[in-house]
Prior knowledge:
Layout lengths: L1 H16 L13 E4 H5 L10 E5 L4 E9 L7 E7 L12 E3 L2 E4 L5 E8 L8 E10 L4 E2 L5 E7 L1
Parallel strand pairs: 1-9, 2-10
Antiparallel strand pairs: 1-3, 3-7, 4-6, 4-8, 5-7, 8-10
Amino acid sequence: MKKILSLVTLALVLVFSSCIEQDYPLWDGSLVEFQDAVVRTPVAGQKYPRITVNNKVGTVSLQVNLVAPQRSTDETINYSVVAEGTTAVAGTDYTTAGTLVIPANSSVGTLTINVVNTGSLGGSVDLLLQLDGNATISPSENYKQVQIRITR
């Protein structure tokens, strides 16, 4: 008798709990983020990771993710160099465009930095990059910055 009562109670619990309607909120925003900021550990005391490259590397490519439904047209994303956190000199240590494109029907774009070979000077310089987004796509607050350390 106890087994039957237990089974009936369990059945009633399952029947009544399965009928509860859940209204989960859906996020419909659009963000861009650095892949390296998502998968790498931040520098101690900072919100961004650091990637070290040699000045003889030539080109550094950083993946930028679109966190939203893919677009039917190309999206141009703006980015900037953050003065605080940057000791590298534009034109002397690096060159970069300030915009990147996430192609239509894609979730990934590539930010390219050309590292200038300054020879074996010794030491290093830092370049802190920040995604700025565009009119319809905002940068992710947690993953919008990456620092490149260029060793000489």
